[in-house]
Every structure is written in structure tokens, then in C-alpha cells.
Task: inverse folding
């Protein structure tokens, strides 16, 4: 479950971005600045990896309206337990998590003070971005890996606990489009409550405090809504078996398209 926070503030945005280990588009950077309402916006980039990461994220945020952007590296769990790292999160409007592989990121920060503080800050209004491998981490149920298949299979996806900022959306971030659909469908057959979203490289999902989702970037998002799922054969399937799923609904959301999770409705400026 997402953190409840202090109860005095509206939750911050949750922004998974497909691919983008090294950079984000000016369009996405401008949107990130627009949701930070303070006159002087501050950001911090957390590199969560066991080796140094080189990217342009800090400069791109500064070039698109942010006044400050700190960069911190967390290479192991000892650093994730360092109270000095927590000090760099104080007073920021935006936290950007960067990592290469979802499981690597989760094993470095999962259950640590830094993870708990990110959850609390998001609940109290700080916006949180996850790029590349850290995009999948933002969900409660994290897609950590799996097969490259277009159909769901009994063992077609590897799941792990995520950071838990949202339990309404589950993200497959990988820049290879092949395999996303099969992994998402398999994951949804395990947990039909959540909504599955596969995002293209460079494409961002802006998930608002009331779970409205908007797509920004040059690619698109594939959204699978299982709320009307009538039947799943997952419970009786053997290892490697294809899975039957009846009643799923799919949407393809490009730049500017939105999805209201509460109403289970997709729309854009031309269709409401």
C-alpha cells in the first residue's frame, strides 16, 4: 500500500519513464517543472547502481527551469542506510531515481531508510520519477523480468516487491517492445486488481494524486485494464503453459492521451 504520509498534503505525482537511463526529452523536462509549483524548484537525482552512472539528467532539469539539482550515488545498502543521504532529500520538489535493472535497484534500497523516506515524501507532495530500471520500481508489484513473448504464460514473468508508491498501476519499462505484452498479461493474471502499462523508450507517464494518468513523449503507452476480467486459467495452468484471459480491455495512449483509473476511461482532446 502507498504510504499515508502526514495527511496534511496531497500526494505527489508518480512518473515512470521508459528507457532514458542517460537523458530525458525537453518536453518531459518541461512537464516535470510545470508540476513543481514552488517559484524555485529543487530536484535530486539518485543514481542507484553498483557502478558509476553517467547521464545528462541534472543538466537537462537545470536547462528547463529547475533552480537546483543535486546528484547522489547509492551503490550499496550501506550507503542507502547513511543518514547523510536523507539530508539531500529535505525540501526538494522532485526526486529522480535512476537504475539499470529493477531487481538491482530494489535489493540496494528496499526496506532502507532512503526507501521509507521517499515513500513518505511522495505521500506529502514530493514528485517521484523512476527512469530505466527504476521505472518498474515505483509500483507496489514490480515486474522484475520475464520472457519475451506476446502471450501470457504460467511462468512468463518474474515479480518482486517494489517501492509501493502506487498499487493501481504496474509498469513494464523495457526499451524492447517485444515481450512487454506477454509479461504484462502474465502479471495481470496473477493480480487482476492493478492496471498494467508498458511504456516506450523516452515516454513518461504522469500519474496524478487521484490516479489520473497522462502520457508525454514521442512514444506511446500500452495500457491493459483487467477490471472486467471474466476468466483466467492461471490457477490451473502447468509450468510454461499459455494462459487464457477473457474480458481484458487494451488502450494505446500516445502524447496527451489520458486514463482515469477511477472511471476506467481513456480519452484525449479529440475524444472524451
Result:
Amino acid at each position: 500500500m502507498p504510504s499515508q504520509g502526514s495527511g496534511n498534503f496531497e500526494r505527489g505525482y508518480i512518473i515512470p519513464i521508459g528507457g532514458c537511463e542517460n537523458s530525458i526529452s525537453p518536453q518531459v523536462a518541461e512537464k516535470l517543472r510545470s508540476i513543481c509549483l514552488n517559484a524555485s524548484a529543487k530536484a535530486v537525482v539518485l543514481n542507484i547502481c553498483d557502478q558509476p552512472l553517467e547521464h545528462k539528467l541534472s543538466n537537462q532539469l537545470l536547462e528547463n527551469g529547475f533552480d537546483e539539482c543535486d546528484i547522489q550515488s547509492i551503490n550499496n545498502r550501506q550507503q542507502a542506510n547513511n543518514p547523510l543521504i536523507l539530508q539531500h532529500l529535505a525540501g526538494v520538489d522532485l526526486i529522480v531515481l535512476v537504475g539499470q535493472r529493477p531487481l538491482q535497484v530494489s535489493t540496494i534500497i528496499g526496506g532502507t531508510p532512503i526507501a521509507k523516506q521517499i515513500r513518505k515524501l511522495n505521500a506529502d507532495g514530493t514528485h517521484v520519477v523512476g527512469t530505466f530500471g527504476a521505472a518498474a520500481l515505483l509500483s507496489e508489484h514490480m515486474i522484475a523480468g520475464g520472457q519475451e513473448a506476446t502471450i501470457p504464460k504460467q511462468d512468463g514473468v518474474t515479480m518482486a516487491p517494489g517501492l509501493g508508491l502506487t498499487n493501481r498501476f504496474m509498469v513494464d519499462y523495457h526499451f524492447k517492445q517485444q515481450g512487454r505484452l506477454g509479461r504484462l498479461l502474465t502479471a495481470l493474471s496473477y493480480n487482476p486488481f492493478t492496471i498494467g502499462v508498458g511504456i516506450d523508450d523516452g515516454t513518461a507517464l504522469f500519474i496524478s494524486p487521484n490516479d489520473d494518468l497522462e502520457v508525454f513523449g514521442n512514444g506511446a503507452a500500452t495500457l491493459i485494464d483487467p477490471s472486467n476480467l471474466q476468466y483466467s486459467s492461471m490457477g490451473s495452468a502447468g509450468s510454461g503453459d499459455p494462459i487464457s484471459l477473457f474480458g481484458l480491455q487494451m488502450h494505446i495512449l500516445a502524447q496527451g492521451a489520458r486514463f482515469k483509473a477511477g472511471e476506467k476511461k481513456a480519452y484525449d482532446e479529440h475524444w472524451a
The helical segments are 26-34, 57-63, 77-80, 83-87, 102-109, 113-123, 133-137, 180-190. The longest helix spans residues 113-123. The chain has one domain: 14-265. The chain has a mean pLDDT of 91.
